Predict the structure.
Amino acid sequence: MPLIALLPGDGIGPEVIAEARRVLDAMSLDLTFEEAPVGGAAYQAGGHPLPAATLDLARRADAILFGAVGDPTCDALERSLRPEQAILGLRKELALFANLRPAKLFPGLEDASALRPEVAAAIDMVIVRELNGDVYFGEKGMRTTAAGLREGYDVMRYDESEVARIAHLGFQTATKRAGKLCSVDKANVLETSQLWRDVVIEVSAHYPQVALTHMYVDNCAMQLVRDPGQFDVIVTGNLFGDILSDQASMCAGSIGMLPSASLDASAKGLYEPIHGSAPDIAGQSKANPCATILSAAMMLRHSLGMAEAADRLEAAVGAALAGGARTADLGGTLSTRAMGDAVLVAL
Ligand code: NAD
Ligand code: IPM
Ligand code: MN
């Protein structure tokens, strides 16, 4: 029986994970769950955001379902003890280098999008974000300049093997979809991006059936609101992918709707909503659990070989939304639990 590591984390993390768990339980899939603390909750309980036992569970499990980490009371801690280090540590320790962030507009959510309905309706893309490199994991620090000024620095870097492996995944993802891959970089300014572009072009020789284009990240941010329907698959680095996926979420209705899968070279994966711990609404039963429920569906598909169950779960979310179920972020009044109930009814 597959073992799922449940890591609820902080803020709205436990609230949205509870709904995903209820939905999975209702599907009678023969899964076992083991829960462990992570993030600020783990720091408060034991002094470290990613305890050894939590990392061990993540390693042992067949898949990880993650809520969110982040606690404003921890923002002054030294960086290695902050909640966000838990998710960064899991991604690095488990070599989860590929982050799939699908963004599509569910029918009925046109009015929740920040875009005009006819522009939003066309959104159906996957952002393939590199997750183990870039400015996130380069050398960083604080130092004092010769003039006595404080200076912060973070080195942006990729080597060609890191670019090639995510590029392959981008092309493979596009092959299974509409066959269009847009590589997003800042090659007009950054050497890291020039290497990125060169390597993506080299890798493209293996995928003649995919139409490859390149776009600078600033233009991409603009195109995402001008005409998001032009994108099929976007492949990009860690930092650009972080920013563009939050932007894409609001084009598609809400950040509370976007799931993600973080995959290693095999089928092992960590599944989490793209949003954070939302301290502004935590504890108020206002959070939209759909992103986490859809992340659970991705887990069934990518790590557990349960594609049919994944389809069923995604269809249930779609049916609940089509039936008018809406949390506050979508302009409705349902609580987190009531939204979970709506998905359960649709199941
Ligand atoms: P956030 O995503 O937590 O929230 C941004 C805004 O979106 C807030 O107004 C929030 O209320 C709203 N929102 C987010 N998720 C929602 C949901 N499911 N339903 C309804 N509304 C939702 O981003 P932030 O405020 O910049 O960050 C808060 C904390 O979360 C920080 O500590 C940050 O580092 C952390 N964070 C963690 C992750 C993660 O665990 N993977 C991701 C992003 C941010
Ligand atoms: C995300 C988050 C994380 C990131 C933070 C919390 C480290 O914003 O998962 O999108 O920047 O990757
Ligand atoms: Mn983010």
The mean pLDDT is 98. DSSP finds twelve helices and twelve strands in the chain. The longest helix spans residues 160-175.
